[in-house]
Specification:
about 425 residues; mainly alpha; Cytochrome Bc1 Complex, Chain D, domain 2; 3 domains; two-stranded antiparallel ribbon; 18 helices; globular
Length: about 425
């Protein structure tokens, strides 16, 4: 309790100092407002495509709730956020918002009433969206059915429940600015960069964050935790770098949720957890030309290895030997039938585990959660009947799951760190995706 009070006092003191020295420039107007008038159908359709790519509906729709009416719980290390209603209801949604209000939220991170928005709403990415695209998104949202649903208050821990601290956070970590094309790159690369960095807000999930929730990719090019799953780094060759993939394979993964291994050496990957939802709800409906532009940009990202590797679990040689023996027996009983005696896999039903970066990356969160809860890639138009994996949480103990995951991470030339039963227990909590 004493530590929390001290932390709160320090943060409040920091806030006072930063507000004192705060200068104009926190808010940027960006491009000139486009001319007003009735939006043509083509502009509304353009806005619909952008809203889809921006992942607005899944985030702003509670399970079983009306689309865009808000109320979805978003657990974070700071507490639980609840997304607001963005239907055109004039009292509980954004029906009373002007196009300028909407732009101000996306670009500058402020609500209509002037309150700073928490960066769970990824305005740190959306700030790159052009003013005309923001207007198109606004025009589309005006056409969705209005739903009266009051905003649910966030459930945040102290001191994060003090919204005014965001003034200091913004001064430290946020600079508004519309995407600027790189004249040294192709138009397709620039289009992909605009979509990945801005509209699709990929870094909101796939980049590491510091203790205050700000992206720290320059000092730690790792991924991030999202809904208790690990979104791997898109620049780390040991995680989810795509430099060795073809653009066609990247598009296939984004569009269908899986890539099958039709020949030795070709990628075999599937999206699970929150990324499966992104593919199902959004990416499968995106124009293939837009996905190809994203693929061009993602493939061109330079490989950057993290210098801050995860600290391996301490375990004696005898303890590790016993864990591997238990894991080998459990693997033979429960896994080998699908994934092969030597982790070679049986595509397209079961992916190989030998040399699989999803198994061997520093973070063991995803393999633990997949063994615990199983899962399927999304059922998309390009993969309407996906193969899946059953959950083992009802039948295996934390110790057993730790043993079999450790076995997979350290067999067949895999050389990842072992997993503890404590890690497994920690992943039995929270949402499944």
């Amino acid at each position: 309790m004493k530590k929390r009070v001290i932390a709160g006092v320090v943060l409040i003191a920091l806030l006072v100092v930063l507000i004192w020295f705060l200068r104009p420039g926190d808010v940027q107007t960006g491009e000139a407002p486009p001319p007003l008038g009735a939006a043509p159908a083509s502009e509304i359709e353009h806005g619909r495509a952008l809203v889809n790519l921006a992942d607005c509906q899944p985030c702003h729709t509670a399970r079983g709730g009306a689309p865009f009416a808000g109320g979805r719980a978003i657990p974070t290390p700071f507490g639980v956020f609840y997304s607001p209603n963005i239907t055109p209801d004039p009292e509980t949604g954004i029906g009373a918002w002007s196009a300028e209000d909407f732009w101000h939220a996306l670009h500058n991170g402020y609500s209509r009433d002037g309150r700073p928005l928490y960066p769970t709403f990824p305005y740190t990415n959306y700030t790159k969206i052009s003013r005309r695209d923001a207007l198109a998104m606004y025009e589309y949202l005006k056409t969705v059915p209005a739903v009266r649903q009051p905003r649910r208050e966030h459930e945040l821990r102290f001191p994060y429940d003090h919204r005014m601290l965001l003034i200091a956070w913004r001064r430290l970590f946020f600079r508004p600015g519309v995407f600027q094309p790189d004249p040294q790159q192709s138009p397709e690369w620039n289009r992909g960069a605009y979509l990945v960095q801005g509209v699709a807000n990929c870094s909101a999930c796939h980049e590491a964050r510091n203790a205050l929730g700000a992206i720290q990719s320059k000092t730690n090019p790792a991924g991030g935790l999202v809904l208790n799953w690990y979104a791997p780094s898109l620049t780390n060759p040991h995680e989810a770098s795509l430099r060795d993939w073809s653009e066609a394979d990247i598009v296939t993964l984004l569009q269908t949720g899986r890539v099958g291994m039709s020949a030795p050496g070709e990628p075999h990957a599937a999206t699970l957890g929150p990324m499966a939802e992104v593919v199902y709800e959004n990416l499968q409906h995106v124009d293939p030309a837009e996905l190809h532009a994203m693929a061009v940009y993602l493939k061109a990202l330079p490989d950057v290895e993290s210098s801050a590797r995860a600290r391996p679990m301490r375990i004696s040689s005898a303890g590790l030997e016993g864990t591997m023996k238990r894991g080998a027996k459990l693997y033979a009983d429960h896994c080998a039938r699908c994934h092969g005696d030597n982790g070679e896999g049986k595509p397209p039903a079961a992916p190989p585990l030998a040399g699989n970066r999803a198994v061997t990356m520093d973070s063991a969160v995803n393999p633990i959660r997949i063994v615990l809860y199983g899962g399927y890639p999304p059922g998309t138009a390009g993969n309407p009947r996906p193969f899946g994996m059953p959950p083992f949480s009802p039948t295996l103990t934390d110790t057993e799951i730790a043993a079999v995951v450790t076995y997979m991470r350290r067999s067949w030339n895999n050389n990842a760190s072992p997993v503890s039963s404590t890690e497994v227990a920690r992943n039995r909590t929270g949402p499944l995706w």
